[in-house]
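Final report, section 2: Outcomes. Of the targets proposed, Lipopolysaccharide assembly protein B is the one most frequently requested by collaborating groups, and we therefore present its record in full.
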Amino acid sequence: MELDLTWLLWGLPIAFALGWIASRLDLKQWRIAGRQAPRAYFRGLNHLLNEQQDQAIDAFIEAVQSDPDTAELHFALGNLFRRRGDYDRAVRVHEHLLARSDIGRKDRDRAQHALALDFLKAGLLDRAETALAKLEGSDFEGEALLALLSIYERSRDWPQARRIAEKLDQAQPGSFVGRLAHYLCEEAELAQRAGNSLQAFKLLDEAVTRVPSLARGWLAISALRTQVGDLAGAYTALEKLNQHAPQALPLAARHLVELARKLGKEADAIRMLEAAHARAPSLDVSEALASLGADDRSRRQRFLSHLAQEPSLVMATRWLEGETLSDPTAQAHVKNALEAACGPLQRYRCAACGFEARQHFWQCPGCQAWDSYPARRVEEL
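The predicted structure is given below as tokens.
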């Protein structure tokens, strides 16, 4: 039986033709997909530039579907979800990136950092803390430490905040010693409330040793020593405050006067307060000096002395309180009007965000900045 090779003559050309057609179809599909993905990407970019986040998200989703292996598109999409407040979808995008085995170490760290930001924005502080801890040793370690510091401040976990601040102070070019000293003061307050005065003194001593110019530390030491009955130690702490942080003496003026009266050191306190007033006229210092006056006339003279150095509606009101108008009804109305006008002028104002408050804060309730409140009132700024 002879072998029929005729089918080979037909089969080979047909197989070649089918292979060529298939390759052309694949190339055409690849070109179409290649054109569609960049077009969707640039359309999304255009929406972003026009601040059209919803349309940009739709375009990037289309681009990701066309090219699911591109990490940059996933990062762009995840960031858009986060900016829009769609944190669940942002988390899913970044967790998908972390689950992939084909991305490099840098992209993996970047996805981990983005995931931590998602949790932070969503207010899931415990999950954010876990995600940030995994960035140790990465290029994002500095940013992760700063975010952890913010978390511990918000949760008022001062020992952990102190630990992170020490790391940042060693690693970062900026100094975090000031914040660290405030954390020590916060811990001291907690110890004081718990009745552990010895631990509170230890923490405060460490704070002023690290930062001698920390006004808060000296004020806290003075208050604590007053509480335990050590008036001489309390007065000494205020003397050190005047030595290391004289600009903060107005915050301690009233307490200084009270201690001076009990210890018989009125003359010494007057010298200290007058020196402070000569450096920078202060409402609190003037009122403290006036309270040390022998009689009403000397007190009112102190108010006039302040007005001679610096115009002040508050001091003018204090002086006018000693004047008697011919009409008693007018007297009460004028007094109420002046007190109402003086109220806002006696507040403290944050130098970082402008938040005003009746009391002095070491950390602004508005912007969370430390040491942003000057010791001077709004009228004096």
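The chain is about 70% helix and 0% strand.
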